[in-house]
Amino acid sequence: MACQQLLQLGRDAAHHIREECDDLQTSSLLGCGPALVSLLSRQASVLMRLDSADASSGDLVMKRLEDILSISYSKFYCFLFKDLPVHWRQLYTDASILKFHVLLLRAATAADPGQSTILLDEAVISELVRTLDLALILAGAAGEQRGRLWIGRALDLLRDVWTSAQPEQAGDLRISAKTAKIDAKGDDPSPLEDLRFSAISFSDFQPFTPPVKSPIPRCPALSVEAFQAYMDSPTDLTLGPEPLIFTDLVDEWPARTTHPWHNPSYLLSKTFGGHRLVPVEIGRSYVDEGWGQKLITFGTLLRDYIDPSLSPDQAPAERQIGYLAQHPLLSQLPALRDDIRVPDLCYTSPPPHPTDPGKDQPEVDEPMLNAWFGPPGTITPLHNDPYHNLLVQVVGSKYVRLYSPLHTEQMQARGKEDGVEMGNTSSLDVGALEGWDQPADQDQQQPNPYKQGSEERVRQAFKDVPFVDCILHPGDTLYIPIGWWHYVRGLSVSFSVSFWWN
Amino acid sequence: MELYATGNNAWNQLDFDGVADASTEPTDFTSFQLVLEDAVIDRPHASLACTLVNTSNGIRTAGVPEVWMQSPSLKDKVLGSSAAIAGNGSIAGWGNPRTSIYDGEAVKQYRSESHFQEGKNQATFTSLRHVSQLVAYETGFAALSPTGQVWTWGDERYEACLCREVSDDSPAEEPGAVAELEDLPTGKVKKLAAAGYLLMALTEGNDLYAWGGHPGLPGFLDDISASPSPVVIEDHDVADCAVGQSHSAVLTLSGEVYTAGANANGQLGITTEADSPWSKVPLPPGLDGTIVSVACGPRNSFMTVQKRHLHT
Where are the domains of chain B? Predict the structure, then answer.
């Protein structure tokens, strides 16, 4: 009885939240202050008595939980994320957990006052999933007692309730037309019926393919020992290890075989039929004017941004590029995490930054995983990262160009922009300098190398800087050593996973 | 005098008489209601969960006191506008943190309430030795000098709130004078108000200016930018102003109150669910007197009223 289990999970959470809050001095929420802790505790307390769902007191609880969410959310902007005290993230997460329980109680009461079933129409499902996804994405599901573990458990049970309530849909992964309502921004998307996607792949349409001028060596995967030796004994001792492509490192990944990520239906089946919420970058490149981030459902991402050819009946709308970039998607969706394997090569001891020890980060326990999922034409501008990176191409193709850290002087690094440190990003637009793209309209306040009469000089100087480049195909793994400047361009629908380690 | 209030009451912070039934969850006020009467009622200070107000009977408190209110000197300074607490927990204060002595003391900034208590200041701003008002917004501060000059400082990510050019010589984190608020057509600035990501300045000639904004969040007033723009409410002269987390209240010279912004907790005192542009607030039934000031907590609003019969 997943339904009863889910309700019990919520009751237990309310019980524990109240207990923890009432012992304020030991509470991990202490930093939020007594007023907010007592308000959360009172809502948990009301919820524990709310089983016989009294609609009116449920409304007040909901309002107070919304208050707590909005108060804690405002703190997320007050601080740089790294300085944000964890108690604010936990407060947001616990309030989200209680909100989820209120929504569930309402749905259960509506279906059956005895609460043996839950009425899960699309609107309810979308609100339930959204509530927990916001806690995962915005607050990092903080909290040792519940947090990510509780949310994962709740989503698993919710999925069981949902699929058992819709046996006719459980198998064929269809998204009904009503799913359209779940759009996070309240857009009014057209029906999703065509997203049945039976056993097809994403389009392999590749509108533009840049020439590869200085190809990176390709080889079968090295053993851990051989890779360690490769990094320890570089050809150029000043430079350190150089980029390399492994052609067969991930051949055994389920994502490339039995659980194919190139199949839209499969991805939908792992995202609650597309209901899950994901952060998407809107705009060509993060240095462009008008670039922004928003949260949309995975279904909307697929249909409206990644591959419009999946719904051919729909008139193609003129849309900006949407890119799910640098998001820890695989922690948010553990089901997809099971489809990949952290390469053993990440359990090596790579060398420090070749030129600037100040860039080296404290050692990480586990590699940091990020997902990169977008349509043709996504651009990650020329930048460098403070970690070594294995970039695995799972679906589609990407062009990558790399400049060594020895040429950092010529990369024209940006500075602080609007209080945000952009020093790891170059002000050079590779696509524009190569003539592949029109230069983007840049912020007038920024020094603009193209508009200072030195356009040609910049182009010439840049042309002379040596680089290596490649086109990554499905199954390829690119090793990007720490500090190497890289420019990445999606050529087709592309899904990559990066592993940062040190 | 009378104090009227509307908006968030989740902590009974609008209940000065302590009459609320402790067994039920307090509800918000959706219109201005009488909450306190006294011979003297100053403009209240409302934090998220607590309201403080100076009366002829001393400071009256409603709601759940914030941790910083345990410090009597900080409480006095905040009520007297010589200290202010930003949304990120930073405190700016003028004068000795433990006493009410101000002479020769520069404005200092403290990372938190406990640092204030211990006198562990993070910065001392010797350029600011005389301050007639200190206010805080979400990530910074503004100060008004006795000569009407406005100074701002805070998180450089929200440069619009600073209302001035940030440079190496004039960094965001140190007070810098706001040139655009000097030589205004209706005289110098006599009052500041700030909260959230909105700041306001009121001139001696009763013009109101606003600036600020948050790049990622929609503002609730039109035309808010990094440059002060006049707040126009049907040609009214403005007598007083106040700013909450995402709303604002204005008292006109003709004695009317207008509110704008978010109304999720009833803080506008009008009947609208959604965010609202400037709307005239209906006078509370039974109000017989002159509204003399307005104040905003993060999610509620207040007006003080001089009762008519006391004058006649």
Answer: 12-29+44-249
Last residue of a domain, one of A134, A156, A171: A171
Please write the tens of the pLDDT for every residue from A48-60: 887 655 656 688 9
Residues A108 and A248 in one domain: no
Judge whether A190 lies within some domain: no
Residue A180 falls inside a structural domain: no
| Of A129, A375, A343, the residue nearest A253 (C-alpha) | A343
Q: What stretches in chain B show pLDDT beneath 70?
A: 96-104, 309-312
Strand order in the sheet with B229-230: B189-195, B198-203, B208-212, B229-230
Quote the DSSP letter at residue A440.
P
Residue with tokens 């997460």: A93
pLDDT at res. B192 = 97
Q: Is A24 exposed, middle or buried (0-12, 13-18, 19+ CB in 10 A)?
A: middle
- Residue B124 parent element (H or E): strand B123-125
Number of compact structural domains in chain A: 2
CA gap B186, B287 in Å, rounded = 32
Residues near A290 by beta carbon (within 8 Å), at least 6 away in sequence: A283
- Estimate the crossing angle of helix A147-165 against helix A86-111, to 10 degrees: 20
Q: pLDDT for B45-90, tens place per residue? A: 999 999 999 999 999 999 999 999 988 888 988 998 999 999 999 9
A39 CB neighbours in chain B (<8 A) are: 10-11, 49
Cα separation, B116 vs B78, whole angstroms: 13
A231: CATH? 2.60.120.650
Q: Are A66 and A164 found together in one domain?
A: yes
B50 CB neighbours in chain A (<8 A) are 35
Closest partner CB to B245 (pick from A66, A74, A419): A74
Query: What is the per-residue DSSP string for A470-486?
Result: EEE-TT-EEEE-TT-EE
| Residues B207/B200, Cβ–Cβ less than 8 Å | no
- CB spacing of A78 vs B139 below 8 angstroms: yes
Q: Are residues A244 and A389 in the same domain?
A: yes
Residue A166 is assigned to a structural domain of this protein: yes
Structural domain boundaries, residue A88:
2-171
Scanning A117-207, the segments in alpha helix (DSSP H) are 122-139, 147-165, 167-170
Do A26 and A162 lie in one domain? The reply is: yes
Handedness of CA A112, A115, A121, A126 (dihedral sign): positive
Below-50 pLDDT ranges, chain A: 169-195, 199, 443-445
Residue numbers in B near A417 (CB within 8 A): none
Give the strand pairing for A494-501 and B2-7.
unpaired
Asked whether residue A368 is assigned to any structural domain, the reply reads: yes
Rounded distance, CA B158 to CA B86, Å?
Answer: 13
CA distance A56 to chain B (A): 12
Residues of B with Cβ-Cβ distance to A79 under 8 angstroms: 88
**Which residue, A114, A144, A171, sits at the end of a domain?**
A171
Q: Which two tokens stand for residue A392?
A: 């695995």
Task: For residue A99, give the nearest of A24, A34, A14 by alpha carbon.
Answer: A14
- Structure token digits, residue A309: 């050819």
Residue of chain B with shortest Cα separation from A31: B67
